[in-house]
Amino acid sequence: MMWGNWTIVNEFVLVSFSALSSELQALLFLLFLIIYMVTLMGNVLIILVTTADSALQSPMYFFLRNLSFLEIGFNLVIVPKMLGTLIIQDTTISFLGCATQMYFFFFFGAAECCLLATMAYDRYVAICDPLRYPIIMGRRACVQLAAASWFSGFPVATVQTTWIFSFPFCGPNRVNHFFCDSPPVIALVCADTSLFELEALTATVLFILFPFLLILGSYVRILSTIFRMPSAEGKRKAFSTCSSHLLVVSLFYSTAILTYFRPRSSTSPENKKLLSLSYTVVTPMLNPIIYSLRNSEVKAALKRVTHRTLSPKKL
């Protein structure tokens, strides 16, 4: 649509991986479809096991269950549309559809950053102050911390998305990404975005860097406490309860920080797509695998739940 000298954009085109050959796109479709199914099944399994097994009712598994819900939501926002662009070349997305995808991407991303920090705090209290752990991390406190983590996604998603889509889009509508992320969308705006970019940097510091620093501080104290333990067995048990979370945090934050804190000119759009794949597609798949393979309690619970499900019931 034309309005004065502007072209009013009512849909966007996701460039995605259109530069690749159709054969390679078909292979990527199969790969991402498998990852998508594994992600959904793995996280649903974590939710079911931590809900059904009485031995997994501690705060750590309560937060893990919330993380699995976030990972499922994160995947549902990004992957189905990406699969459509690969297999049937459905690269168009409506103005409202793009805004909705961006909103929930911000929502789930900010909530996950805060939840990972909450999980680090839980491990900090469990290891550094074990005698007061049942009091500090009671049921009510856990629910409040989880609710605060989920709620943190609303302000950043609402402000960022509303601000971006209130700008005029005057012509080009090709988003050089596989989903509606803010940097490639804001590049299409035909207005001064300097104030928004300052706000976006502030939000990134608050919702990515600040939780990461809290996690880092928690693990400095945790490791200091572990190294002072006199028993080698105590050290092993303490570290085993943290290793899964530490690995998940490393995977998520390393790629997120590389994506959002590097200068625009230092990373090509194709490299940014690869980095984005790491925390939007690969990490949600690895989380349930890491927590099930590296956690003896989850593995034991899986065996118990599987045995109860498959074994014949006595009359």
Automatic annotation (TrEMBL):
Membrane topology, record value: Multi-pass membrane protein
Domain G-protein coupled receptors family 1 profile: 42-291
Gene3D superfamilies per record: Rhodopsin 7-helix transmembrane proteins
Localization: Cell membrane
Principal place of residence: membrane
Transmembrane segments: 26-50, 62-83, 103-121, 142-165, 201-223, 244-262, 274-293
Keyword Cell membrane attributed: yes
Entry's family note: Belongs to the G-protein coupled receptor 1 family.
Stated name of the protein: Olfactory receptor
